[in-house]
Design a protein that fits this description.
Helix content: over 70%
Low-confidence stretches: none
Mean pLDDT: 85
Number of helices: 4
Shape: flat
Largest sheet: none
Order of helices and strands: HHHH
Distance between the termini: 23 Å
C-alpha cells in the first residue's frame, strides 16, 4: 500500500472521528442536561441523517449502473430516489416520536447536529482533496 493511500485513510479516519465527536457531544449534552432518553432521541436524529446519506450514496451508484448516460432516465430515477429518502425520513421521525415516544426537540436537534456534522465532513474532505490536487 502506498504512502499516499495510507495518509488518505488516516485523514478520512480523523474526519469521521470529528463527525462522530459532534454527534456524541450533542447527545451527551442532552443526556446530562435533560435526561438519558433525550440523548437517545438526539442519537436517533443523527442516525436518520447518516442513513439518509448512505441511501443517497447507494442510489447515486445504482442510478449510474441502471441509467448510465441516459439523462432523462437518470433524472427520473433520481427524483424517485429523492422521494424515497423523504418518505424514509418522515417514517423514521414518526417511529421516533410516535412509536418510541421520544421527545421531539432532541430528535430534531439531533437531526440538525447530524447535518452540521455532515457539512463539517464535506468541508474537511474537500480541503483534503484541494491539498492533494493543488
Amino acid at each position: 500500500m502506498s504512502q499516499a493511500v495510507v495518509a488518505q485513510r488516516r485523514a478520512r479516519t480523523i474526519v469521521l472521528m470529528g463527525q462522530g465527536a459532534i454527534i456524541g457531544i450533542h447527545a451527551g449534552l442532552f443526556g446530562l442536561l435533560v435526561e438519558p432518553a433525550a440523548a437517545v432521541a438526539a442519537l436517533l436524529g443523527s442516525l436518520i441523517v447518516i442513513l439518509n446519506s448512505l441511501m443517497q450514496s447507494w442510489q447515486l451508484k445504482r442510478a449510474d449502473r441502471i441509467a448510465g448516460r441516459d439523462a432523462a432516465m437518470n433524472l427520473r430515477y433520481l427524483y424517485r430516489c429523492t422521494i424515497e429518502r423523504y418518505i424514509t425520513i418522515a417514517v423514521l421521525f414518526a417511529v421516533g416520536i410516535g412509536a418510541l415516544k421520544l421527545a421531539a426537540l432532541p430528535l430534531l436537534t439531533g437531526f440538525a447536529a447530524g447535518h452540521l456534522a455532515m457539512v463539517y465532513r464535506w468541508f474537511l474532505e474537500s480541503s483534503l482533496r484541494r491539498r492533494r490536487h493543488g
